[in-house]
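Notes, p. 3: input format for complexes.
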Amino acid sequence: MIKKGTKIASPKGKVGVLIPGMGAVATTFIAGVEAMRTQGAKPFGSLTQMGTIRLGKRTDKRVPMIKDFVPLADVNDLVFGGWDIHGENCYETTLRSGVLERTLLDSLKPQLQGLKPWSAVFEKKYVKRLNSKTVKKGKTKYDQALQVIEDIQNFKKKNSLDRLTMIWCGSTEIFLKPGKVHSSLEEFEKGLKKNDPGISPSMIYAYAALHLGIPYANGAPNLSADFPAMVELAQKNKAPICGKDFKTGQTLMKTIIAPGLKSRMIGLKGWFSTNILGNRDGEVLDEPQSFKTKEESKLSVLDHILQPDVYPELYKDFHHQVRINYYPPSGDNKEGWDNIDIFGWLGYPMQIKVNFLCRDSILAAPLCLDLVLFLDLAKRAGMSGIQEWLSFYFKSPQCAPELYPEHDLFIQLMKLKNTLRYLRGEDLITHLGLEYYD
Ligand SMILES: NC(=O)c1ccc[n+]([C@@H]2O[C@H](COP(=O)([O-])OP(=O)(O)OC[C@H]3O[C@@H](n4cnc5c(N)ncnc54)[C@H](O)[C@@H]3O)[C@@H](O)[C@H]2O)c1
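Output follows (438 residues plus nicotinamide-adenine-dinucleotide):
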């Protein structure tokens, strides 16, 4: 276990941000960082940039910004690179994605145009709705992993990078269950060499990163680094890994509302969630096998938060349904509807309706920035393997096999901030507060 107040290596130097999948989320993240650097744009939604952390007693009045408290890399030191199949540069992708305004994009054109993804590891069978233009060849999946490793090494050399992190912002792959090939590093490497169908492209990128000791995060719900072989590789090469599927729109709301209902012992009969989404992600998720991956990730949160086993009278057998409807006119502006059937005192029924008119990539971009910076911090602090303190960012947090994941957003935030306090040798905050009344 890492020691309290451990020494953290300096954040100085350039950090390469490796992104497999340079679509709407990735390019909104990149354009946003460029706008921060050159136009003083505000990173709303980013805890690392805008959040504070209380230290010591409430009467101490020590509340620094998180970025001043822990040694994070400077956003000016981030250098972007990545892979995609579409053959566009980032300026073209941002225009097509329709998330950001044209005037902003035109002001960032030189930086965005200069970023063209490298050819990708891709197989249509894992994301059926997409057609590819720029794809790596290679007889085996192992050959492809070596090519990704080579891309990373070239990128590092060309840009004189000190460190790297990788964040999958690619499409949601089909639903895969962990099997023998995922059970150990040895089995996984054998599988790479004999093209095992259980190994998807996202796993090949994750393998390449972890092989080089580079931290890895997965923004999508597909199986990628959340199985024993990758945990073993991450530990072996001292690379931090964390959960999957960014917690942004509807699930973010769920993990805000559900802990509140439970804390007041309000029962739940049913929770119906539907989404209208018109971007490429929506198109991919319209395909049943990709939707199945997303559905599993979205459904699991309520059970873990509400604990029906502990509170059967309140939460046993509640009906939970999630739908995603591909509706092109909505573009990236996703609309989420929730109908929540609850009951209170003496069983009297009530309802909550939530209509969240959100912007998918606007919600996801700051999460990319925070994850890149926190994973880089973890690596410099000597933390490797599963980083449960980053659960805050994911619909499917990764945790030790004997644990259940923590989904409650407020517990996740407390865990994250206490981890930062611990790293800096500060007292953890329990919120007991009895000392103020002695
Ligand atoms: N935006 C959100 O709020 C949010 C929340 C949770 C999860 N996600 C997930 O994040 C991912 C990205 O979302 P998006 O809106 O940017 O989607 P997008 O379709 O705009 O971008 C995904 C990109 O990945 C590329 N891609 C697919 N397979 C690839 C491969 N093997 N190698 C390299 N590139 C590949 C596609 O060509 C595409 O450009 C999706 O999986 C989505 O489900 C998004």
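The mean pLDDT is 95.
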